[in-house]
């Protein structure tokens, strides 16, 4: 096949309109073929390949004379045909080269764009200067494309994949390259050719390729100058007043302030009513002051050593969040701005922010997801280095997690603490993680504020138009070291030699705007004077502060939730029997209509219905009664986690699938009552850290929603331990932020080896805030006082009824506390682990302990051994005691709520069995489970009058044995130790 045939091959799909004989493709050099091609082009230029369209437009082709009937045309001499073919080939190759050049700039132009302010750069005022003008030749982006001298001034047809011509269809090659360089190789590097949607790619081209689009009006430039001044002068004021304090200022990237302002202004103009921001500590104080409009005196007061006025330990000033309501000055529309509190774990806030946004969208019925906008501000090293970024970005298109697109802003310091990018990531850019969701990425030079503003507006418009993620990469530098006390010259001497010699972006822009006649020197001095006065006034007010109120920094205020509530009283958790019966019947019936279910499901529904008829429930049915009764009361319930729709142990089946129709599903509990709240049950990605953070953020938005995250196995929550430690366990202490979310952690050593057995309850108990040496006074409100004072609740229920009550109690409490709830595995189908409806009706409540029953309770003085335990192991103990006929000598009491510790009930139980040896029995190893938490509290409760001893497995580095023989031997030893007692 000739080279020309290779070029024209792809046009065959369009050329069929020209009625060309198929054999003509075998001889593309024939005059008949050229004639038919030319006739097709005359009828419709779009019916032929673009290379032929370009060739015919040049006028190089001359059609042969019209042949009369019977006239025999003489063959064209071979030499002439070859000459025509060479001409055609040359023209076609040139046009294809031009198209390849255009694509090269679109794909790789960002690689040579002047986005780094630390490199030599050209004047931001000169919008017509290209790299070719500066260096005398085109950049390497087109180095491998064939260009000769004759092509420079020759016009070429522009393909539909570019907008550089605006309304012009052809341009000389020299002009084509110049426009491409101005679009792709100046101060904005655009990555978008990985996007597989033509409409989206063309949308970006229209905003960057069309000549002259990146221009600001005089008014916009003056506004930009003012916003830059606030960002720069705020940092300068802090440096002047507190030069020896850490503040993690944004010097070197002060353009973040106009960037954020532009994003917010544009978003509000396009329908946004709330902005939720998640960010680490760099630039946080500046964002608080100039974006969230936190009163300066409140910020400055954080630099003083003040006594706290309210509860909690607080946190450092650059971790605090805030919630503000006001009016957006650009649009005069109301706007709420939330800056979510975040610990030092940098990107940890990302999923929390996304969950908060999703919940706010739900509350506002924001189906189009345009009213609440998430903005995540990243650091370059943390964005590429922390896995939670990847976990969070993958929420982007998931139906039950997506938020309609996140605007990612990267403060690209080009360094992480002291580590260069070449040692901290393998990807070319820190933003490459965003490519997995086809997000456009705009790298922009932070010392060109006009380009930053344009890119920021474009990002907001993209999010509004396509409801997808977008990235603004502010390529900047860090003026100081990791913080203001750090010495960066130790590790980056060359970089910081350059940085020390640089003017800040406001000074540079002042010079540029003065040259353009936008502002005068007097106006610039007035900007500076006015803002410095604002800061001084804030400083004076802060100096008058005597205490600090942590409540000023709540990022999720629940208006009127705590109003007129008695913290010593909990609303009843029982419900009427007819409600239980109605929910249970619906949940135990097959889906309505001709829905085809799996045969095994029919058997499960039949078994459920038998329980309903006997007015009893197993674990799955009890859970359905719990959720259903709350839905009836208007409480939105959301349950997420890995495989929660069916349930890891195939017990839940809240979502069933049609067996003969793909993607047809039926979700139980969504249609129990005509006016019920919405129930959401959704499988999550295989992520613990990210999903737990998302659900935590979701729970913060509305205290009257029940938000539950279930780990597939309790052990898997280990991957989310950071979220538990720094957000959930300590959120109220640090940020006065209550949270009522529930974490379900399947637990029990009957699992499949060491990683499927233990929820590591000891870790959650270790994080509790109660004092093991303090015995609270036994008052009528003892239990409620404990709940109000504790940081979270840790429990292990053994009956569906207790599960029913403790979950409902989460909503009925006058305050909110996280609930860490160990859930069973084998007990899900255990015939003894069932409850009667009578245990859930009105007048019943959660039992913090379930006392020993039967013969031991009837004759307590004769009991030799009192066993306290928690969870599934109770049934093992009880079975053995019954089989050995020892239930009159051994009493077994279940502690259902380990934290807060039920001192009052424990003392009462111990006093009842005054002659018994007291032991704590557990199936976990001695260094795991509840023992280390229980022992000191039992000693406090008993005041040294009696001893409590341990019965269980010996210490082990592994949570459970993976060997069945060893597991069984340990189990038998445990059981034998439990039934031993001294006469």
What is the number of helical segments per DSSP (H or I, 4+ residues)?
34
Mean pLDDT: 89
Beta fraction: 5-15%
CATH topology of the largest domain: Rossmann fold
What can you see in these coordinates?
This protein has 983 residues and is α/β, with parallel strands linked by helices. Helix content is 39%, strand content 13%. It folds into 5 domains: 3-76, no CATH class; 94-208, no CATH class; 236-502 and 537-553, Rossmann fold (3-Layer(aba) Sandwich), CATH 3.40.50.970; 577-839, Rossmann fold (3-Layer(aba) Sandwich); 849-979, Multifunctional 2-oxoglutarate metabolism enzyme, C-terminal domain (Rossmann fold, 3-Layer(aba) Sandwich). It has 34 helices and 28 strands. The chain has an 8-stranded mixed beta sheet. A 7-stranded mixed beta sheet has the order 17-14-18-19-21-20-26, with helices on both faces. Helix 15 packs across helix 24. The chain is globular, with a radius of gyration of 36 Å. The N and C termini lie far apart (102 Å).
Reconstruct the topology from this structure.
Layout: H1 3-8, H2 12-15, H3 31-43, H4 50-57, H5 78-108, H6 131-135, E1 155-157, E2 170-172, H7 173-184, E3 188-191, H8 198-208, H9 218-241, H10 256-269, E4 274-279, H11 284-290, H12 296-301, E5 307-308, E6 322-328, E7 333-339, H13 349-363, E8 372-379, H14 380-385, H15 387-393, E9 407-412, H16 421-424, E10 441-445, H17 449-466, E11 470-475, H18 493-500, H19 505-515, H20 521-543, E12 547-548, H21 577-587, H22 599-613, E13 616-617, H23 619-632, E14 636-641, E15 655-657, E16 665-667, E17 679-683, H24 689-701, E18 705-710, H25 721-728, H26 731-735, E19 742-746, H27 761-766, H28 782-789, E20 793-796, H29 800-812, E21 819-823, E22 835-836, E23 849-850, H30 855-858, E24 865-869, H31 873-883, E25 890-895, E26 897-899, H32 903-912, E27 917-925, H33 931-942, E28 948-953, H34 964-979
Parallel strand pairs: 4-7, 4-8, 5-12, 8-9, 9-11, 10-11, 14-17, 14-18, 18-19, 19-21, 20-21, 24-25, 24-27, 27-28
Antiparallel strand pairs: 1-2, 3-10, 6-7, 13-22, 15-16, 20-26, 23-25
Helix pairs in contact: 4-5, 5-7, 9-10, 9-19, 9-20, 10-17, 13-24, 15-24, 21-22, 21-23, 23-29, 24-25, 32-33
